[in-house]
Protein backbone atom coordinates (compact mmCIF):
# COMPACT_ATOMS: atom_id res chain seq x y z
CA UNK A 1 0.00 0.00 0.00
CA UNK A 2 1.37 3.39 -0.95
CA UNK A 3 -0.08 6.79 -0.17
CA UNK A 4 0.07 9.57 -2.74
CA UNK A 5 -0.73 13.26 -2.41
CA UNK A 6 -0.87 15.21 -5.67
CA UNK A 7 -1.95 18.78 -6.32
CA UNK A 8 -3.26 20.15 -9.61
CA UNK A 9 -5.65 22.97 -10.38
CA UNK A 10 -8.59 20.79 -11.43
CA UNK A 11 -11.64 20.81 -9.19
CA UNK A 12 -15.01 19.23 -9.82
CA UNK A 13 -17.79 17.36 -8.04
CA UNK A 14 -18.52 13.69 -7.90
CA UNK A 15 -21.65 11.89 -6.79
CA UNK A 16 -20.27 8.96 -4.87
CA UNK A 17 -20.36 7.50 -1.38
CA UNK A 18 -18.45 7.97 1.85
CA UNK A 19 -15.97 10.55 3.04
CA UNK A 20 -17.24 13.36 0.88
CA UNK A 21 -16.27 16.81 2.06
CA UNK A 22 -17.61 20.06 0.65
CA UNK A 23 -16.62 23.51 1.78
CA UNK A 24 -17.84 27.05 1.39
CA UNK A 25 -15.53 29.99 0.78
CA UNK A 26 -14.23 32.25 -1.94
CA UNK A 27 -12.51 30.70 -4.90
CA UNK A 28 -9.89 33.30 -5.71
CA UNK A 29 -8.54 34.74 -2.49
CA UNK A 30 -7.36 33.76 0.96
CA UNK A 31 -6.62 30.36 2.40
CA UNK A 32 -7.70 27.93 5.08
CA UNK A 33 -8.82 29.84 8.17
CA UNK A 34 -8.60 33.25 6.47
CA UNK A 35 -11.60 33.31 4.18
CA UNK A 36 -11.06 30.89 1.35
CA UNK A 37 -12.56 27.97 3.27
CA UNK A 38 -14.92 28.81 6.11
CA UNK A 39 -17.21 25.82 6.56
CA UNK A 40 -16.82 22.08 5.89
CA UNK A 41 -19.68 19.64 5.25
CA UNK A 42 -18.61 16.11 6.16
CA UNK A 43 -20.89 13.61 4.43
CA UNK A 44 -19.90 10.67 6.57
CA UNK A 45 -20.41 9.36 10.09
CA UNK A 46 -18.59 7.81 13.02
CA UNK A 47 -14.88 7.83 13.63
CA UNK A 48 -13.72 9.38 10.34
CA UNK A 49 -16.23 12.23 10.61
CA UNK A 50 -14.93 12.99 14.11
CA UNK A 51 -11.36 12.77 12.81
CA UNK A 52 -12.01 15.41 10.14
CA UNK A 53 -13.84 17.66 12.61
CA UNK A 54 -10.92 17.67 15.04
CA UNK A 55 -8.55 19.00 12.38
CA UNK A 56 -11.17 21.44 11.06
CA UNK A 57 -11.67 22.89 14.55
CA UNK A 58 -7.92 23.09 15.15
CA UNK A 59 -7.38 25.23 12.05
CA UNK A 60 -10.46 27.39 12.62
CA UNK A 61 -13.07 25.90 10.29
CA UNK A 62 -16.74 25.34 11.12
CA UNK A 63 -18.03 21.81 10.55
CA UNK A 64 -21.41 20.57 9.33
CA UNK A 65 -22.54 17.00 10.04
CA UNK A 66 -25.29 14.86 8.55
CA UNK A 67 -27.01 12.14 10.53
CA UNK A 68 -29.57 9.37 10.16
CA UNK A 69 -32.26 8.35 12.64
CA UNK A 70 -29.80 5.92 14.23
CA UNK A 71 -27.14 8.65 14.69
CA UNK A 72 -29.31 11.40 16.16
CA UNK A 73 -27.39 11.29 19.46
CA UNK A 74 -24.04 10.08 18.09
CA UNK A 75 -20.66 11.60 18.82
CA UNK A 76 -20.08 13.06 15.34
CA UNK A 77 -23.49 14.77 15.47
CA UNK A 78 -22.67 16.34 18.85
CA UNK A 79 -19.17 17.46 17.78
CA UNK A 80 -20.29 19.41 14.71
CA UNK A 81 -21.13 23.11 14.73
CA UNK A 82 -24.25 22.26 12.70
CA UNK A 83 -26.00 18.95 12.07
CA UNK A 84 -28.74 18.02 9.59
CA UNK A 85 -31.05 15.02 9.56
CA UNK A 86 -30.97 13.07 6.26
CA UNK A 87 -33.27 10.10 6.74
CA UNK A 88 -33.73 6.59 8.15
CA UNK A 89 -30.98 4.38 9.53
CA UNK A 90 -30.49 2.39 6.31
CA UNK A 91 -27.49 3.85 4.43
CA UNK A 92 -29.25 3.68 1.06
CA UNK A 93 -31.88 6.08 2.40
CA UNK A 94 -29.50 8.44 4.19
CA UNK A 95 -25.71 8.52 3.87
CA UNK A 96 -25.71 7.06 0.33
CA UNK A 97 -28.59 9.29 -0.85
CA UNK A 98 -26.74 12.02 -2.70
CA UNK A 99 -29.80 14.19 -3.30
CA UNK A 100 -30.23 14.56 0.46
CA UNK A 101 -26.54 15.33 0.94
CA UNK A 102 -26.68 18.01 -1.75
CA UNK A 103 -29.77 19.54 -0.19
CA UNK A 104 -27.92 19.84 3.14
CA UNK A 105 -25.02 21.45 1.28
CA UNK A 106 -27.43 24.09 -0.02
CA UNK A 107 -29.12 24.66 3.34
CA UNK A 108 -25.85 24.94 5.23
CA UNK A 109 -24.20 27.05 2.52
CA UNK A 110 -21.33 24.59 2.43
CA UNK A 111 -22.00 23.88 -1.23
CA UNK A 112 -19.73 22.28 -3.80
CA UNK A 113 -17.77 23.66 -6.70
CA UNK A 114 -18.97 22.39 -10.06
CA UNK A 115 -22.71 22.96 -9.49
CA UNK A 116 -22.34 26.33 -7.77
CA UNK A 117 -18.91 27.60 -8.76
CA UNK A 118 -20.31 31.10 -9.08
CA UNK A 119 -21.14 31.06 -5.37
CA UNK A 120 -17.58 30.26 -4.36
CA UNK A 121 -17.69 26.57 -3.52
CA UNK A 122 -14.76 24.20 -3.28
CA UNK A 123 -14.93 20.44 -3.43
CA UNK A 124 -12.25 18.78 -1.33
CA UNK A 125 -11.13 15.76 -3.28
CA UNK A 126 -10.00 14.53 -6.68
CA UNK A 127 -11.75 15.15 -10.02
CA UNK A 128 -14.95 13.22 -10.59
CA UNK A 129 -13.31 11.49 -13.55
CA UNK A 130 -10.53 10.14 -11.32
CA UNK A 131 -13.04 8.89 -8.75
CA UNK A 132 -15.18 7.29 -11.43
CA UNK A 133 -12.26 5.60 -13.18
CA UNK A 134 -10.58 4.40 -10.00
CA UNK A 135 -13.88 3.53 -8.30
CA UNK A 136 -14.75 1.01 -11.01
CA UNK A 137 -12.21 -1.76 -10.58
CA UNK A 138 -12.52 -3.08 -14.13
CA UNK A 139 -11.89 0.39 -15.60
CA UNK A 140 -8.98 1.05 -13.26
CA UNK A 141 -7.28 -2.20 -14.30
CA UNK A 142 -7.31 -1.17 -17.97
CA UNK A 143 -5.98 2.31 -17.17
CA UNK A 144 -3.24 0.96 -14.92
CA UNK A 145 -2.12 -1.57 -17.50
CA UNK A 146 -1.83 1.19 -20.10
CA UNK A 147 0.17 3.32 -17.63
CA UNK A 148 2.71 0.56 -17.05
CA UNK A 149 1.48 -0.32 -13.56
CA UNK A 150 1.58 -4.12 -13.06
CA UNK A 151 -1.85 -5.75 -12.62
CA UNK A 152 -3.23 -9.22 -11.88
CA UNK A 153 -4.81 -10.68 -14.97
CA UNK A 154 -8.46 -11.61 -14.76
CA UNK A 155 -11.88 -11.02 -16.24
CA UNK A 156 -13.12 -7.41 -16.15
CA UNK A 157 -15.72 -7.64 -18.92
CA UNK A 158 -19.28 -6.41 -19.35
CA UNK A 159 -20.91 -9.83 -19.77
CA UNK A 160 -22.11 -10.52 -16.23
CA UNK A 161 -24.06 -13.70 -16.82
CA UNK A 162 -23.44 -16.56 -14.40
CA UNK A 163 -22.30 -18.77 -17.26
CA UNK A 164 -19.73 -16.26 -18.56
CA UNK A 165 -18.29 -15.56 -15.11
CA UNK A 166 -18.01 -19.27 -14.35
CA UNK A 167 -16.28 -19.92 -17.70
CA UNK A 168 -13.79 -17.14 -16.97
CA UNK A 169 -13.15 -18.49 -13.48
CA UNK A 170 -12.33 -21.89 -14.97
CA UNK A 171 -10.01 -20.24 -17.52
CA UNK A 172 -8.17 -18.28 -14.83
CA UNK A 173 -7.96 -21.35 -12.59
CA UNK A 174 -9.19 -21.88 -9.05
CA UNK A 175 -8.97 -20.48 -6.45
CA UNK A 176 -10.36 -17.18 -7.74
CA UNK A 177 -11.33 -13.91 -6.10
CA UNK A 178 -14.80 -12.55 -6.87
CA UNK A 179 -14.90 -8.76 -6.40
CA UNK A 180 -17.50 -6.04 -6.76
CA UNK A 181 -16.16 -3.56 -9.33
CA UNK A 182 -17.31 -0.66 -7.12
CA UNK A 183 -16.38 -2.41 -3.89
CA UNK A 184 -14.17 -1.55 -0.99
CA UNK A 185 -13.58 -2.33 2.67
CA UNK A 186 -13.88 -6.08 2.07
CA UNK A 187 -17.54 -5.74 1.02
CA UNK A 188 -18.76 -7.64 -2.04
CA UNK A 189 -15.69 -9.87 -2.03
CA UNK A 190 -15.59 -13.67 -1.87
CA UNK A 191 -13.09 -16.46 -2.55
CA UNK A 192 -14.22 -19.44 -4.62
CA UNK A 193 -11.77 -22.29 -4.15
CA UNK A 194 -13.61 -24.81 -6.29
CA UNK A 195 -16.11 -24.75 -9.15
CA UNK A 196 -18.68 -26.40 -6.88
CA UNK A 197 -18.85 -23.37 -4.57
CA UNK A 198 -18.52 -20.69 -7.25
CA UNK A 199 -22.23 -19.97 -7.72
CA UNK A 200 -22.99 -19.62 -3.99
CA UNK A 201 -20.03 -17.29 -3.45
CA UNK A 202 -20.96 -15.22 -6.53
CA UNK A 203 -24.53 -14.72 -5.33
CA UNK A 204 -23.34 -13.80 -1.86
CA UNK A 205 -20.88 -11.22 -3.23
CA UNK A 206 -23.57 -9.73 -5.47
CA UNK A 207 -26.08 -9.34 -2.63
CA UNK A 208 -23.55 -7.70 -0.33
CA UNK A 209 -22.30 -5.38 -3.09
CA UNK A 210 -25.83 -4.29 -3.97
CA UNK A 211 -26.54 -3.43 -0.34
CA UNK A 212 -23.23 -1.63 0.19
CA UNK A 213 -22.68 0.12 -3.17
CA UNK A 214 -26.01 -0.13 -5.01
CA UNK A 215 -24.18 -2.03 -7.78
CA UNK A 216 -23.58 -5.76 -8.23
CA UNK A 217 -21.24 -5.89 -11.24
CA UNK A 218 -18.37 -8.34 -10.56
CA UNK A 219 -14.86 -9.05 -11.77
CA UNK A 220 -12.92 -12.31 -11.44
CA UNK A 221 -9.22 -12.51 -10.62
CA UNK A 222 -6.71 -15.15 -9.68
CA UNK A 223 -6.49 -15.42 -5.91
CA UNK A 224 -2.91 -14.89 -4.71
CA UNK A 225 -2.08 -17.45 -2.04
CA UNK A 226 0.13 -16.40 0.89
CA UNK A 227 0.68 -12.77 -0.11
CA UNK A 228 2.96 -10.48 1.86
CA UNK A 229 1.08 -7.86 3.79
CA UNK A 230 1.43 -4.93 6.16
CA UNK A 231 -1.84 -5.81 7.88
CA UNK A 232 -3.67 -8.56 9.75
CA UNK A 233 -7.07 -9.22 8.21
CA UNK A 234 -10.27 -11.08 8.98
CA UNK A 235 -13.23 -11.43 6.58
CA UNK A 236 -11.20 -9.35 4.07
CA UNK A 237 -11.11 -6.42 6.48
CA UNK A 238 -7.95 -5.03 8.03
CA UNK A 239 -7.72 -5.28 11.81
CA UNK A 240 -4.09 -4.34 12.46
CA UNK A 241 -2.01 -2.19 10.10
CA UNK A 242 1.56 -1.04 10.30
CA UNK A 243 3.98 1.30 8.57
CA UNK A 244 6.51 1.03 7.12
CA UNK A 245 5.67 -2.38 5.64
CA UNK A 246 7.95 -4.97 7.28
CA UNK A 247 10.57 -6.80 5.27
CA UNK A 248 10.43 -4.43 2.30
CA UNK A 249 13.73 -3.03 1.12
CA UNK A 250 14.25 0.66 0.33
CA UNK A 251 14.56 -0.29 -3.35
CA UNK A 252 11.21 -2.08 -3.45
CA UNK A 253 9.56 0.71 -1.48
CA UNK A 254 10.89 3.20 -4.02
CA UNK A 255 9.39 1.16 -6.87
CA UNK A 256 6.06 0.96 -5.05
CA UNK A 257 6.02 4.74 -4.65
CA UNK A 258 6.89 5.33 -8.27
CA UNK A 259 4.13 2.96 -9.42
CA UNK A 260 1.64 4.76 -7.13
CA UNK A 261 2.57 8.12 -8.64
CA UNK A 262 2.17 6.71 -12.18
CA UNK A 263 -1.25 5.42 -11.18
CA UNK A 264 -2.32 8.82 -9.82
CA UNK A 265 -1.00 10.77 -12.81
CA UNK A 266 -2.78 8.42 -15.21
CA UNK A 267 -6.15 9.75 -13.94
CA UNK A 268 -5.08 13.37 -13.26
CA UNK A 269 -5.48 12.81 -9.54
CA UNK A 270 -5.81 15.66 -7.02
CA UNK A 271 -5.41 15.51 -3.24
CA UNK A 272 -4.98 12.54 -0.93
CA UNK A 273 -5.47 8.96 -2.05
CA UNK A 274 -4.19 5.46 -1.41
CA UNK A 275 -2.97 2.96 -3.99
CA UNK A 276 -3.13 -0.66 -2.86
CA UNK A 277 -0.84 -3.35 -4.24
CA UNK A 278 -0.65 -7.06 -3.54
CA UNK A 279 2.84 -8.57 -3.21
CA UNK A 280 3.88 -12.19 -3.53
CA UNK A 281 6.64 -14.00 -1.68
CA UNK A 282 9.17 -12.95 -4.34
CA UNK A 283 8.36 -9.24 -3.82
CA UNK A 284 6.56 -8.97 -7.15
CA UNK A 285 3.73 -6.51 -6.70
CA UNK A 286 0.49 -5.92 -8.60
CA UNK A 287 -2.07 -3.11 -8.59
CA UNK A 288 -5.24 -3.92 -6.64
CA UNK A 289 -7.15 -0.65 -6.39
CA UNK A 290 -6.91 3.02 -5.63
CA UNK A 291 -9.04 4.46 -2.84
CA UNK A 292 -9.82 8.03 -3.85
CA UNK A 293 -9.88 9.22 -0.26
CA UNK A 294 -8.04 8.89 3.01
CA UNK A 295 -8.24 5.32 4.20
CA UNK A 296 -9.07 4.15 7.71
CA UNK A 297 -5.40 3.37 8.30
CA UNK A 298 -4.04 6.79 7.28
CA UNK A 299 -2.87 7.59 10.88
CA UNK A 300 0.06 5.15 10.59
CA UNK A 301 1.37 7.21 7.66
CA UNK A 302 0.90 10.38 9.69
CA UNK A 303 2.73 8.94 12.69
CA UNK A 304 5.90 8.03 10.78
CA UNK A 305 5.98 11.24 8.72
CA UNK A 306 4.82 13.80 11.29
CA UNK A 307 2.01 15.09 9.05
CA UNK A 308 -1.73 15.77 9.30
CA UNK A 309 -3.13 14.53 6.00
CA UNK A 310 -6.61 15.92 6.67
CA UNK A 311 -5.10 19.39 7.07
CA UNK A 312 -3.14 18.88 3.86
CA UNK A 313 -6.37 18.05 2.03
CA UNK A 314 -8.00 21.22 3.26
CA UNK A 315 -5.01 23.39 2.37
CA UNK A 316 -4.67 21.91 -1.12
CA UNK A 317 -8.39 22.50 -1.69
CA UNK A 318 -7.83 26.12 -0.64
CA UNK A 319 -5.23 26.52 -3.38
CA UNK A 320 -2.19 26.42 -1.13
CA UNK A 321 1.00 24.61 -1.98
CA UNK A 322 1.84 21.32 -0.33
CA UNK A 323 3.63 22.02 2.98
CA UNK A 324 6.49 19.64 2.07
CA UNK A 325 8.00 18.13 -1.06
CA UNK A 326 8.55 14.39 -1.37
CA UNK A 327 12.27 14.86 -0.74
CA UNK A 328 11.56 16.62 2.56
CA UNK A 329 9.45 13.76 3.94
CA UNK A 330 11.58 11.43 6.06
CA UNK A 331 10.26 8.20 7.57
CA UNK A 332 10.82 8.09 11.31
CA UNK A 333 10.20 5.08 13.55
CA UNK A 334 7.37 2.58 13.22
CA UNK A 335 3.62 2.74 13.76
CA UNK A 336 0.78 0.27 14.37
CA UNK A 337 -2.96 0.77 14.21
CA UNK A 338 -5.42 -1.65 15.79
CA UNK A 339 -9.13 -1.40 15.12
CA UNK A 340 -11.30 -1.92 18.17
CA UNK A 341 -14.54 -3.65 17.21
CA UNK A 342 -17.87 -4.38 18.88
CA UNK A 343 -17.79 -8.15 18.39
CA UNK A 344 -18.54 -11.28 20.35
CA UNK A 345 -15.46 -13.52 20.85
CA UNK A 346 -17.75 -16.34 21.99
CA UNK A 347 -19.79 -16.13 18.77
CA UNK A 348 -17.02 -16.45 16.17
CA UNK A 349 -16.33 -12.71 16.47
CA UNK A 350 -19.60 -11.77 14.80
CA UNK A 351 -20.52 -8.08 15.02
CA UNK A 352 -22.43 -7.12 18.13
CA UNK A 353 -24.99 -4.33 18.10
CA UNK A 354 -26.33 -2.65 21.23
CA UNK A 355 -25.45 -0.04 23.86
CA UNK A 356 -21.86 0.50 24.98
CA UNK A 357 -22.49 -0.08 28.67
CA UNK A 358 -18.84 0.37 29.57
CA UNK A 359 -15.96 1.83 27.57
CA UNK A 360 -12.52 2.78 28.83
CA UNK A 361 -9.50 3.48 26.67
CA UNK A 362 -5.74 3.86 27.12
CA UNK A 363 -4.52 7.38 27.86
CA UNK A 364 -3.57 9.35 24.75
CA UNK A 365 -0.12 10.96 24.52
CA UNK A 366 2.25 12.13 21.80
CA UNK A 367 2.93 8.52 20.78
CA UNK A 368 -0.59 7.15 21.32
CA UNK A 369 -3.75 8.21 19.49
CA UNK A 370 -7.32 7.10 20.15
CA UNK A 371 -9.42 7.79 17.05
CA UNK A 372 -13.05 7.18 17.95
CA UNK A 373 -16.59 8.15 17.08
CA UNK A 374 -18.42 6.75 20.11
CA UNK A 375 -18.75 7.37 23.84
CA UNK A 376 -19.83 5.21 26.74
CA UNK A 377 -23.60 4.89 26.53
CA UNK A 378 -23.74 5.30 22.74
CA UNK A 379 -25.52 2.70 20.65
CA UNK A 380 -23.57 0.47 18.26
CA UNK A 381 -26.04 0.27 15.39
CA UNK A 382 -26.73 -2.87 13.38
CA UNK A 383 -26.89 -0.67 10.27
CA UNK A 384 -23.23 0.39 10.20
CA UNK A 385 -19.69 -0.81 10.69
CA UNK A 386 -18.97 -2.26 14.18
CA UNK A 387 -15.68 -0.40 14.65
CA UNK A 388 -15.59 1.45 17.98
CA UNK A 389 -12.17 3.06 17.73
CA UNK A 390 -8.68 2.95 16.29
CA UNK A 391 -5.70 2.63 18.61
CA UNK A 392 -2.60 4.12 16.94
CA UNK A 393 0.88 3.94 18.48
CA UNK A 394 4.41 4.98 17.49
CA UNK A 395 7.80 3.63 18.54
CA UNK A 396 11.40 4.22 17.56
CA UNK A 397 11.45 0.86 15.78
CA UNK A 398 9.05 -2.01 15.03
CA UNK A 399 9.84 -3.85 18.24
CA UNK A 400 9.22 -0.77 20.40
CA UNK A 401 5.99 0.06 18.56
CA UNK A 402 4.72 -3.51 18.94
CA UNK A 403 5.51 -3.46 22.66
CA UNK A 404 3.59 -0.18 22.99
CA UNK A 405 0.63 -1.63 21.06
CA UNK A 406 0.45 -4.68 23.32
CA UNK A 407 0.64 -2.52 26.43
CA UNK A 408 -2.20 -0.27 25.26
CA UNK A 409 -4.40 -3.16 24.12
CA UNK A 410 -4.17 -4.66 27.60
CA UNK A 411 -5.78 -1.48 28.91
CA UNK A 412 -8.88 -2.08 26.79
CA UNK A 413 -11.51 -4.44 28.22
CA UNK A 414 -10.58 -7.67 26.48
CA UNK A 415 -11.52 -11.29 26.98
CA UNK A 416 -8.44 -13.30 27.92
CA UNK A 417 -6.37 -12.24 24.94
CA UNK A 418 -9.43 -12.67 22.66
CA UNK A 419 -9.24 -16.46 22.53
CA UNK A 420 -10.28 -17.54 25.98
CA UNK A 421 -10.35 -20.92 27.58
CA UNK A 422 -12.94 -21.35 30.27
CA UNK A 423 -11.10 -20.03 33.33
CA UNK A 424 -12.36 -20.14 36.88
CA UNK A 425 -11.74 -16.83 38.66
CA UNK A 426 -9.11 -17.13 41.37
CA UNK A 427 -10.07 -16.97 45.04
CA UNK A 428 -8.56 -13.49 45.11
CA UNK A 429 -10.83 -12.40 42.25
CA UNK A 430 -13.84 -13.93 44.03
CA UNK A 431 -12.97 -11.87 47.10
CA UNK A 432 -12.62 -8.75 44.93
CA UNK A 433 -16.06 -9.40 43.39
CA UNK A 434 -17.64 -9.94 46.81
CA UNK A 435 -16.00 -6.76 48.13
CA UNK A 436 -17.27 -4.75 45.14
CA UNK A 437 -20.82 -6.00 45.75
CA UNK A 438 -20.64 -5.15 49.46
CA UNK A 439 -19.33 -1.67 48.72
CA UNK A 440 -22.11 -1.10 46.21
CA UNK A 441 -24.67 -2.20 48.83
CA UNK A 442 -23.17 0.27 51.31
CA UNK A 443 -23.31 3.04 48.71
CA UNK A 444 -26.94 2.28 47.81
CA UNK A 445 -27.89 2.21 51.51
CA UNK A 446 -26.19 5.55 52.08
CA UNK A 447 -28.01 7.03 49.09
CA UNK A 448 -31.34 5.79 50.48
CA UNK A 449 -30.55 7.17 53.93
CA UNK A 450 -29.60 10.57 52.50
CA UNK A 451 -32.83 10.72 50.51
CA UNK A 452 -35.05 10.02 53.54
CA UNK A 453 -37.22 13.00 54.56
CA UNK A 454 -38.12 11.43 57.94
CA UNK A 455 -35.45 12.54 60.37
CA UNK A 456 -36.82 10.13 63.00
CA UNK A 457 -36.55 7.11 60.69
CA UNK A 458 -33.94 4.56 61.86
CA UNK A 459 -32.64 4.53 58.27
CA UNK A 460 -31.87 8.26 58.51
CA UNK A 461 -29.43 7.79 61.39
CA UNK A 462 -26.15 9.55 60.70
CA UNK A 463 -24.07 6.85 62.36
CA UNK A 464 -24.93 4.28 59.67
CA UNK A 465 -26.10 1.60 62.13
CA UNK A 466 -28.93 -0.65 60.90
CA UNK A 467 -31.19 -2.78 63.06
CA UNK A 468 -31.00 -6.57 62.93
CA UNK A 469 -27.90 -6.66 60.73
CA UNK A 470 -25.78 -9.75 61.36
CA UNK A 471 -22.02 -9.51 61.72
CA UNK A 472 -21.58 -12.31 59.22
CA UNK A 473 -23.30 -13.43 56.06
CA UNK A 474 -23.06 -15.90 53.20
CA UNK A 475 -22.83 -14.74 49.59
CA UNK A 476 -23.49 -16.99 46.60
CA UNK A 477 -21.63 -16.23 43.38
CA UNK A 478 -22.31 -17.79 39.97
CA UNK A 479 -19.38 -19.02 37.87
CA UNK A 480 -20.86 -20.27 34.62
CA UNK A 481 -22.99 -23.26 35.56
CA UNK A 482 -21.44 -23.57 39.02
CA UNK A 483 -22.22 -21.75 42.28
CA UNK A 484 -19.64 -20.80 44.90
CA UNK A 485 -20.41 -19.93 48.51
CA UNK A 486 -18.36 -17.31 50.38
CA UNK A 487 -18.72 -16.81 54.13
CA UNK A 488 -18.13 -13.17 55.06
CA UNK A 489 -17.45 -11.74 58.51
CA UNK A 490 -17.67 -7.97 59.09
CA UNK A 491 -14.68 -6.89 61.19
CA UNK A 492 -14.83 -3.92 63.63
CA UNK A 493 -12.17 -2.01 61.67
CA UNK A 494 -14.29 -2.04 58.50
CA UNK A 495 -12.42 -4.91 56.86
CA UNK A 496 -13.82 -8.34 56.04
CA UNK A 497 -12.79 -11.94 56.56
CA UNK A 498 -13.84 -14.07 53.60
CA UNK A 499 -13.83 -17.87 53.70
CA UNK A 500 -13.73 -19.55 50.29
CA UNK A 501 -13.48 -23.21 49.50
CA UNK A 502 -9.69 -23.03 49.50
CA UNK A 503 -8.81 -20.57 52.23
CA UNK A 504 -9.47 -17.61 54.52
CA UNK A 505 -8.70 -14.12 53.21
CA UNK A 506 -8.50 -10.75 54.97
CA UNK A 507 -10.07 -8.18 52.61
CA UNK A 508 -10.41 -4.39 52.68
CA UNK A 509 -10.77 -1.60 50.17
CA UNK A 510 -12.87 1.11 48.57
CA UNK A 511 -14.33 2.07 45.21
CA UNK A 512 -12.69 5.03 43.48
CA UNK A 513 -14.28 6.83 40.54
CA UNK A 514 -12.23 8.58 37.85
CA UNK A 515 -14.59 9.99 35.26
CA UNK A 516 -16.64 7.09 33.92
CA UNK A 517 -14.16 4.49 35.17
CA UNK A 518 -14.47 2.74 38.56
CA UNK A 519 -11.45 1.21 40.29
CA UNK A 520 -11.44 -1.16 43.26
CA UNK A 521 -8.52 -0.19 45.49
CA UNK A 522 -8.22 -3.27 47.66
CA UNK A 523 -6.04 -5.51 49.74
CA UNK A 524 -6.55 -9.28 49.72
CA UNK A 525 -4.44 -10.87 52.48
CA UNK A 526 -1.85 -8.12 52.16
CA UNK A 527 -1.66 -8.08 48.35
CA UNK A 528 -2.58 -4.63 47.05
CA UNK A 529 -4.25 -4.21 43.64
CA UNK A 530 -6.36 -1.70 41.73
CA UNK A 531 -8.41 -3.46 39.02
CA UNK A 532 -11.11 -1.77 36.96
CA UNK A 533 -14.58 -2.78 38.09
CA UNK A 534 -17.80 -2.70 36.09
CA UNK A 535 -21.00 -3.46 37.99
CA UNK A 536 -23.90 -4.21 35.66
CA UNK A 537 -27.05 -5.39 37.37
CA UNK A 538 -26.15 -8.75 38.94
CA UNK A 539 -22.74 -9.10 37.24
CA UNK A 540 -19.27 -7.98 38.34
CA UNK A 541 -16.61 -7.57 35.63
CA UNK A 542 -13.01 -7.35 36.86
CA UNK A 543 -10.28 -6.06 34.52
CA UNK A 544 -6.61 -6.03 35.43
CA UNK A 545 -3.31 -6.15 33.58
CA UNK A 546 -3.25 -9.93 34.22
CA UNK A 547 -6.60 -10.56 32.52
CA UNK A 548 -10.30 -10.36 33.22
CA UNK A 549 -12.95 -12.21 35.20
CA UNK A 550 -16.73 -12.21 35.32
CA UNK A 551 -18.75 -13.17 38.38
CA UNK A 552 -22.54 -13.18 38.69
CA UNK A 553 -24.95 -13.11 41.60
CA UNK A 554 -27.65 -15.71 40.86
CA UNK A 555 -31.14 -14.32 40.27
CA UNK A 556 -33.86 -16.31 42.09
CA UNK A 557 -35.93 -18.39 39.72
CA UNK A 558 -39.17 -16.65 40.69
CA UNK A 559 -37.59 -13.31 39.61
CA UNK A 560 -35.92 -14.54 36.43
CA UNK A 561 -37.68 -13.75 33.15
CA UNK A 562 -38.62 -16.52 30.78
CA UNK A 563 -36.37 -16.46 27.71
CA UNK A 564 -38.10 -16.14 24.37
CA UNK A 565 -35.18 -17.43 22.34
CA UNK A 566 -36.00 -21.11 22.48
CA UNK A 567 -36.87 -22.65 19.15
CA UNK A 568 -37.92 -26.23 19.94
CA UNK A 569 -34.88 -27.14 17.88
CA UNK A 570 -34.14 -24.64 15.10
CA UNK A 571 -31.92 -21.75 14.09
CA UNK A 572 -31.46 -18.45 15.94
CA UNK A 573 -30.10 -15.08 14.83
CA UNK A 574 -26.42 -14.81 15.80
CA UNK A 575 -26.68 -10.99 15.85
CA UNK A 576 -29.21 -8.23 15.31
CA UNK A 577 -29.75 -7.65 11.59
CA UNK A 578 -32.07 -7.52 8.60
CA UNK A 579 -33.33 -10.67 6.88
CA UNK A 580 -32.08 -10.24 3.33
CA UNK A 581 -33.21 -13.56 1.87
CA UNK A 582 -35.36 -16.48 3.07
CA UNK A 583 -34.23 -19.68 1.38
CA UNK A 584 -36.69 -22.19 2.91
CA UNK A 585 -40.42 -22.55 3.51
CA UNK A 586 -42.64 -24.62 5.77
CA UNK A 587 -42.38 -28.30 4.92
CA UNK A 588 -38.93 -28.16 3.31
CA UNK A 589 -36.53 -30.97 4.17
CA UNK A 590 -33.03 -29.70 4.96
CA UNK A 591 -29.72 -31.29 5.84
CA UNK A 592 -27.27 -30.06 8.45
CA UNK A 593 -25.39 -27.07 7.03
CA UNK A 594 -27.98 -26.17 4.38
CA UNK A 595 -28.52 -22.40 4.04
CA UNK A 596 -31.78 -21.22 5.62
CA UNK A 597 -31.58 -17.43 5.52
CA UNK A 598 -29.22 -14.61 4.65
CA UNK A 599 -28.85 -11.74 7.14
CA UNK A 600 -27.27 -8.32 6.66
CA UNK A 601 -25.75 -6.87 9.81
CA UNK A 602 -23.27 -4.01 10.13
CA UNK A 603 -22.76 -3.89 6.35
CA UNK A 604 -21.80 -7.58 6.18
CA UNK A 605 -23.70 -10.60 4.91
CA UNK A 606 -24.11 -13.71 7.06
CA UNK A 607 -25.60 -17.01 5.95
CA UNK A 608 -27.67 -18.83 8.60
CA UNK A 609 -27.38 -22.60 8.16
CA UNK A 610 -29.39 -25.53 9.50
CA UNK A 611 -27.95 -26.77 12.82
CA UNK A 612 -29.19 -30.29 12.07
CA UNK A 613 -31.15 -32.31 9.52
CA UNK A 614 -34.92 -32.08 9.69
CA UNK A 615 -38.11 -30.52 8.39
CA UNK A 616 -38.94 -26.81 8.54
CA UNK A 617 -42.04 -26.54 10.73
CA UNK A 618 -42.30 -22.75 10.80
CA UNK A 619 -40.48 -19.70 9.39
CA UNK A 620 -40.71 -16.71 11.76
CA UNK A 621 -39.36 -13.87 9.59
CA UNK A 622 -40.02 -12.44 6.13
CA UNK A 623 -37.47 -10.81 3.85
CA UNK A 624 -36.78 -7.20 4.79
CA UNK A 625 -37.72 -7.60 8.45
CA UNK A 626 -35.43 -7.02 11.43
CA UNK A 627 -34.41 -9.87 13.74
CA UNK A 628 -32.90 -9.34 17.18
CA UNK A 629 -29.96 -11.33 18.43
CA UNK A 630 -30.95 -14.83 19.62
CA UNK A 631 -34.40 -14.50 18.01
CA UNK A 632 -35.80 -17.77 16.68
CA UNK A 633 -35.61 -17.69 12.88
CA UNK A 634 -37.12 -21.07 12.04
CA UNK A 635 -38.58 -23.99 13.97
CA UNK A 636 -37.43 -27.46 12.92
CA UNK A 637 -38.43 -30.99 13.80
CA UNK A 638 -36.97 -34.39 13.11
CA UNK A 639 -38.17 -35.93 9.86
CA UNK A 640 -39.69 -38.90 11.73
CA UNK A 641 -41.73 -36.55 13.95
CA UNK A 642 -43.08 -34.72 10.92
CA UNK A 643 -44.17 -37.95 9.22
CA UNK A 644 -46.10 -39.05 12.35
CA UNK A 645 -48.28 -35.92 12.40
From TrEMBL:
Pfam families: Biotin_carb_C (PF02785), Biotin_carb_N (PF00289), Biotin_lipoyl (PF00364), CPSase_L_D2 (PF02786). InterPro entries: ATP-grasp, ATP_grasp_subdomain_1, BC-like_N, Biotin_BS, Biotin_carboxylase_complex, Biotin_carboxylation_dom, Biotin_COase_C, Biotin_lipoyl. GO terms for cellular component: mitochondrion. Pathway: Amino-acid degradation; L-leucine degradation; (S)-3-hydroxy-3-methylglutaryl-CoA from 3-isovaleryl-CoA: step 2/3. SUPFAM superfamilies: Glutathione synthetase ATP-binding domain-like, PreATP-grasp domain, Rudiment single hybrid motif, Single hybrid motif. It comes from the Eukaryota. Its cofactor is biotin. Biotin-attachment subunit of the 3-methylcrotonyl-CoA carboxylase, an enzyme that catalyzes the conversion of 3-methylcrotonyl-CoA to 3-methylglutaconyl-CoA, a critical step for leucine and isovaleric acid catabolism. This is Methylcrotonoyl-CoA carboxylase subunit alpha, mitochondrial. It comes from Danionella cerebrum. The lineage of its organism: Eukaryota, Metazoa, Chordata, Craniata, Vertebrata.
